[in-house]
Amino acid sequence: MPVSPALAANPAPPALDDARLLPLCVDLDGTLTPSDTLLEGLLATLGRPSTLGVLPALLRRGRAGLKRFVAEAAPLEASLLPYSEPLLRYLRAQRVNGRRVVLVTAADRDVARRVADHLGLFDEVIASDGRENLRGAAKAAALVRRFGHGGFAYAGNDATDLLVWRAAGAAILVNAPPRVAAAARGLCPVEAEFPPSSDTARGLLRAVRPHQWSKNLLVFVPVFTAHLEGLAEAWLFAFLAFLAFSATASAIYLINDLTDLAADRRHPRKRLRPFASGRVPPRLGILAAGALLLAGLATGGLSGTLPTLLLYAVLSTAYSLRLKELPLVDVFTLAGLYTLRLLAGAEALGQPLSLWLMGFSAFFFLSLALVKRSEELRAAAEHGNAWLNRRGYRPADAGILQTFGVAAAFAATLVLALFVQSETTAQRYASPGLLWAVVPLVVFWLCRIWLSAARGYMHDDPIVYAARDRVSWVVATLVFLILVAAKSYGGAA
């Protein structure tokens, strides 16, 4: 980008003591907040087809016009935005000492004004106005016109801010990468420095949610129901399916968190998630989601589960963007996503999925989905929220949802009992009578899950809760031993 002659001139910078008297101009995106307000606004519009339809035309109007449209279509809630607390403390101290503090940002003026009004910290706001995108050289030129060359200190964070620091009297480095920080030190005195967090990688790993991969162990169930546990090839293809669903699910979790930022920031626990809290910038989440999705689809092709995986990805994305807001549609969608994992496991083995297993899983996973939603309603009521954010339920719906869920649980065990006494079971198991012991164990486990939810013990997905629950592990071990015994004793069928 060409630099104006006024900016090219770079007289000797003022001494640092003198620089501390200069007006302190502060960038917003990546500096005052670790997030990106334009990107957050765009993500907030993903669930609105009418908005998405006009984005191509808006891009032709330029970046400033796009920012104005997004600011109007998805108004920023400045009170929910994460902020750099060390920088805020520094700015407050400077203002107490009588220094002029200015918010200067490439974000739209409406966004900047909302932030300034919320913080009550700035004497002036300079921002993009729908016609001019105040970034890089344009921002530097605006500040030179307002304060003169070298007549201001500037707090920024990335390579585009180097043009501003070239014209500034002092720099405040906030979350600046090492190369940017080194270049800035050669342009003007550094008044203060706030290094980037070293927790980004750990935060991204947390956002990927590897603990949720336990759900994808369902792809191994058809190995047992098809009686192929002695075949190494069956385990290999099931493992590839597990990897494909884990990578794809993690990509969907990232997309879900990125499109649900405002709702997560209102939630007592979800506000601590990496994107909502500002530990991980949204741009990094988008890149990671794309990489994981490509890896998942490629592995799905190797495992032979690509059609089911694509359906899972489409349905999961639709759930994240819209279906989660529709009452009952959301829980039926969640149940369907669980069942798709079983279908993928059978697909990887080249075996049809048993109709008995499909019938059992439909009711079983519907009950678990209703547990998840009932727990969220209970927590919302406990914290005084009349409505769940981005959910179509009210606290008064908790009773009927619990009724639906318990009924689905007993319907699942009824299907299981009918399967135990079916001709199919008699043909496939050496001692099918032993399988009757599984029925009370499943009933006990489902009742315990519902009791745990009613008592407020469950703060996560029920399957993730079960993976951490010792009693659930005991029940799962007993069921496994009974299945082995039913196959092994009494003579081969």
Automatic annotation (TrEMBL):
It is found in: Membrane. This is UbiA family prenyltransferase. The keyword Membrane applies. The chain crosses the membrane at residues 234-259, 280-298, 328-346, 352-371, 400-421, 433-451, 471-490. Its main location: membrane. One of its GO terms (molecular function) is transferase activity, transferring alkyl or aryl (other than methyl) groups. The keyword Iron does not apply. InterPro entries: HAD-like_sf, HAD_sf, Prenyltransferase_related, UbiA_prenyltransferase, UbiA_sf. It is a multi-pass membrane protein. Keywords: Cell membrane, Membrane, Transferase, Transmembrane, Transmembrane helix. GO terms for cellular component: membrane.
